[in-house]
């Protein structure tokens, strides 16, 4: 077989083959060795390794022979190919060197570029980290700035803004800062900051409470002064309009007609009370859901402050300032209650109010326990009335204070009564018992404006000329003056007090009766017992008469006054005491006159057994009648009292004369002595007729009837009951018996038979009269 023509390869073919060589995947294999696996496994299984090796060696040899044959057949081509391969190799070597050189150059350049790229990437990464760090730091700075401003806000008192800033921090949207430990630490510290804000606002409120305590007295003072001005305006209006007399300050009528002037005691020219710290604290605690805690703390603080208002013991000298402080305290409480919603409850305020009122009443009772000056009670009452009216206008219950004022009033009335009792006793003791003398109309009108008189007597006194002697002495005028002062002070205490009028009027009636009866009337009676001058006793009678009139006029005047205020009827029983003392005074006049009459009767020197009858009266009777008429007529008393004095004196004269006839001092007498006594009686009756008092002669009826029975021998007629009752009703049988006994003794003592016979008859008549019923004829 002729050899094949060696194929000639050009440079382009070589390059193309080289390119194909480079395009081959060196990791791939064209040999299929997968079929050798089962064959080799079968050989090992059949133990034919030797046969396989021999067969394989034969195969190899055959293949080598084939290769040699092929090589021999293609030797020229092979040589040519080898030459070509050497060229290719040389070219490839050059190319490799160039590539290596180029690769080294590119590698060197690329290595620098990579380093720069790495440096650039690192720089960008660092820059990104720096940006992130800057952003984070700025976020931190902003948060820290907020926290710092929160501290400044707390210092400036802007607690709500500080709390809002905390909420802003807590509600920040998620950022890279949110995941940092710094931010987590910051969040964990927010409760502490809230606590600081809470403590700061609490401290602010505590400071405010201290300031409120310091200005409470000023608030109360302004409120009390405002109420006092309101009371004055209402009093002036009430005096102008009589329809408003029954209405007090705070009543429905006063509230309707009151021309209210806007005056806020918490915000005015003198004082401005800022409640912002409290409101701010309430707002903060509400936001923190701690309002109950604040409410309890506030109540405890206010209770502690209320406990410190009243010292123990309570000094009366500072009572006004204490009421001012209490008033201011509860005005503030009212404002807080009205402006803070549900923060304060009425029960909490009422608890403080009731506790303070209880301690106030107890403190006042202790302070006034040993007080004896009624003016101190009046001062306390005036303070309490303003205090009550002021706090009633803020709707506080003052019933316990009204009851306490009534308790004070009872003691005040007792002390006032005791004070005036000493004054009345001193006035009566120092009275000169001389009529008051007035020189002009001003003095007269001043006195008439004080005393109580009947309208007729007052009109009569106004008609008289000056100088004028008034009927009464100075004691009556001074007592009337003090009675008016007593009544004024009495009602001054109850003015403005809401209570039942009849109780007050009844107490006034009792007090006036006690003063007038026990300390005026009885004092007059005591002094009367030591007075022996008839003119002074007569003046006492006139005074007592005017005291009687003044009692009725005073009762009428007070009833009229109280009727305009829905008061009850004033009834005074002291006039009975004055009437009794007046009766004692008249009896005292009679007693003194009778004592003087005894002096005259001691000069009588009657002869009880005269031998003849006298035609002329006894000489002592002339002096007696002259003295009696002169003294009684000169007494400055009413005619009725003069007549009573005359009647008392004449009755005493008649009693003395009949005692001469029937008494034990004279043991025996005759008919002539009786006739002489009747002559004296005739003289006295004539004298009393002469002075215009014939009615006084009736007091001699018993004497004349008794003596007429004896002188006309009518004893037997007297023993007849019917005759005795009709004709001799005034005759007392015991006295008639005594007179008959004396006549009998005289007759039996005589020596002549007719006289002895007459004496025996008189004895029998006396025995017959003595047998009459003992009670009859008395």
What descriptors fit this protein?
778 residues, mainly alpha, Tetracycline Repressor, domain 2, 4 domains, two-stranded antiparallel sheet, 27 helices, 74% helix, disordered N terminus
Explain this structure.
It is a single chain. With 778 residues, this protein is mainly α. It has 4 domains: 6-16 and 44-156, no CATH class; 201-390, no CATH class; 411-587, Orthogonal Bundle (Tetracycline Repressor, domain 2), CATH 1.10.357; 610-770, Methane Monooxygenase Hydroxylase, Chain G, domain 1 (Up-down Bundle). It is 74% helix and 1% strand. It has helices at residues 11-23, 36-46, 49-73, 75-156, 159-170, 181-240, 252-257, 276-287, 291-309, 319-339, 346-368, 374-392, 399-429, 441-448, 455-463, 474-494, 501-529, 534-563, 574-602, 620-634, 639-662, 671-690, 701-711, 715-719, 721-727, 733-749, 753-770; strands at 435-438, 468-473. It has a two-stranded antiparallel ribbon. Helix 6 (181-240) packs across helix 12. Residues 750-778 are annotated as: Disordered.
Overall 3D geometry? Answer: rod-shaped
Mean pLDDT: 80
Query: Helical stretch count?
Result: 27
**Share of residues in helices:** over 70%
The low-confidence runs, each spanning 5 or more residues with pLDDT under 50, are 1-26
Q: What order do the SSEs take from the amino end to the carboxyl end, as H and E?
A: HHHHHHHHHHHHHEHHEHHHHHHHHHHHH
What oligomeric state is this? single chain
Structural class: mainly alpha
Classify the beta-strand content into a percent band. under 5%
Number of separate strands: 2
The largest β sheet comes out as: 2 strands, antiparallel
Radius of gyration: 70 Å
Number of domains: 4
Instruction: Write out the strand line-up for the largest beta sheet, numbering strands in chain order.
Output: 1-2
The end-to-end span amounts to 220 Å
Protein name: Exocyst complex component SEC15
Domain Exocyst complex component EXOC6/Sec15 N-terminal: 56-223
Biased composition (Basic and acidic residues): 753-768
Region (Disordered): 750-778
């Amino acid at each position: 077989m002729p050899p094949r023509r060696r194929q000639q390869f050009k440079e382009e073919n070589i390059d193309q083959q080289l390119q194909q060589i480079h395009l081959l995947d060196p990791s791939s294999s064209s040999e299929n060795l997968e079929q050798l696996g089962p064959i080799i496994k079968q050989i090992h299984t059949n133990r034919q390794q030797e046969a396989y090796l021999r067969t394989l060696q034969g195969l190899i040899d055959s293949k080598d022979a084939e290769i040699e044959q092929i090589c021999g057949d293609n030797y020229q081509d092979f040589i040519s190919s080898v030459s070509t391969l050497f060229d290719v190799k040389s070219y490839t070597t050059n190319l490799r060197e160039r590539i290596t050189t180029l690769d080294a150059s590119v590698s060197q350049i690329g290595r620098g570029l990579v380093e720069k790229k790495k440096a650039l990437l690192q720089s960008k990464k660092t820059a990104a980290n720096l940006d992130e760090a800057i952003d984070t730091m700025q976020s931190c700075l902003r948060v820290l700035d907020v926290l710092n401003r929160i501290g400044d806000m707390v210092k400036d008192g802007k607690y709500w803004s500080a709390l809002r800033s905390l909420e802003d921090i807590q509600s920040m949207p998620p950022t890279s800062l949110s995941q940092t430990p710094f931010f987590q630490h910051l969040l964990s510290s927010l409760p502490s900051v809230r606590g600081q804000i809470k403590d700061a606002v609490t401290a602010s409120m505590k400071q405010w409470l201290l300031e409120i305590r310091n200005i409470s007295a000023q608030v109360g003072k302004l409120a009390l002064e405002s109420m006092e001005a309101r009371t004055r305006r209402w009093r002036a209006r009430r005096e102008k309009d009589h329809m408003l007399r029954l209405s007090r300050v705070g009543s429905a009528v006063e509230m309707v007609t009151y021309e209210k002037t806007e005056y806020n005691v918490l915000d005015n020219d003198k004082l401005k009370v800022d409640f912002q710290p409290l409101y701010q604290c309430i707002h903060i605690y509400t936001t923190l859901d701690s309002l109950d805690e604040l409410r309890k703390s506030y109540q405890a603080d206010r209770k502690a402050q209320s406990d410190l208002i009243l010292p123990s013991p309570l000094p009366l000298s500072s009572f006004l300032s204490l009421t001012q402080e209490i008033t201011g305290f509860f005005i503030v409480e009212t404002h807080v209650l009205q402006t803070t919603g549900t923060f304060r409850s009425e029960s909490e305020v009422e608890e403080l109010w009731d506790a303070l009122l209880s301690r106030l009443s107890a403190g006042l009772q202790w302070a006034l326990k040993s007080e004896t000056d009624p003016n101190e009670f009046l001062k306390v009452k005036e303070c309490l009335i303003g205090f009550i009216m002021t706090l009633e206008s803020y709707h506080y219950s003052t019933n316990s204070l009204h009851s306490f004022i009534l308790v004070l009033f009872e003691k005040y009335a007792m002390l006032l009564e005791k004070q005036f009792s000493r004054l009345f006793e001193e006035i009566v003791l120092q009275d000169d018992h001389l009529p008051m003398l007035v020189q002009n109309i001003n003095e007269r009108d001043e006195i008439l404006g004080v005393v109580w008189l009947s309208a007729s007597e007052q009109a009569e006194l106004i008609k008289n000329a000056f100088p004028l002697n008034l009927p009464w002495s100075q004691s009556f005028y001074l007592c009337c003056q003090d009675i008016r002062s007593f009544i004024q002070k009495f009602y001054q205490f109850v003015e403005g007090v809401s209570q039942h009028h009849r109780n007050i009027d009844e107490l006034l009636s009792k007090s006036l009766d006690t003063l007038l009866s026990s300390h005026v009337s009885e004092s007059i009676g005591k002094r009367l017992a030591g007075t022996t001058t008839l003119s002074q006793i007569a003046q006492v009678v006139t005074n007592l008469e005017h005291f009687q009139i003044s009692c009725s006029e005073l009762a009428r005047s007070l009833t009229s006054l109280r009727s305009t205020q829905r008061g009850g009827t004033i009834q005074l029983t002291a006039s009975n005491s004055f009437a009794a003392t007046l009766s004692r005074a008249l009896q005292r006049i009679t007693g003194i006159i009778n004592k003087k009459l005894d002096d005259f009767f001691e000069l009588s020197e009657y002869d009880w057994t005269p031998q003849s009858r006298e035609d002329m009266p006894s000489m002592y009777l002339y002096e007696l009648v002259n003295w009696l008429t002169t003294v009684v007529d000169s007494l400055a008393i009413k005619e009725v009292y003069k007549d009573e004095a005359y009647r008392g004196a004449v009755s005493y004269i008649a009693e003395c004369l009949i005692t001469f006839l029937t008494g034990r001092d004279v043991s025996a007498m005759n008919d002539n002595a009786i006739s002489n006594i009747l002559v004296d009686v005739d003289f006295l009756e004539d004298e009393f007729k002469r002075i215009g008092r014939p009615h006084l002669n009736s007091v001699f009826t018993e004497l004349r009837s008794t003596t007429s029975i004896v002188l006309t021998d009518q004893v037997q007629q007297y023993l007849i009951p019917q005759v005795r009752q009709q004709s001799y009703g005034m005759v007392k049988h015991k006295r008639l018996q005594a007179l008959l006994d004396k006549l009998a003794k005289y007759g039996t003592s005589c020596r002549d038979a007719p006289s002895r016979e007459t004496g025996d008859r008189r004895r029998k008549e006396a025995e017959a009269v003595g047998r009459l019923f003992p009670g009859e004829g008395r």
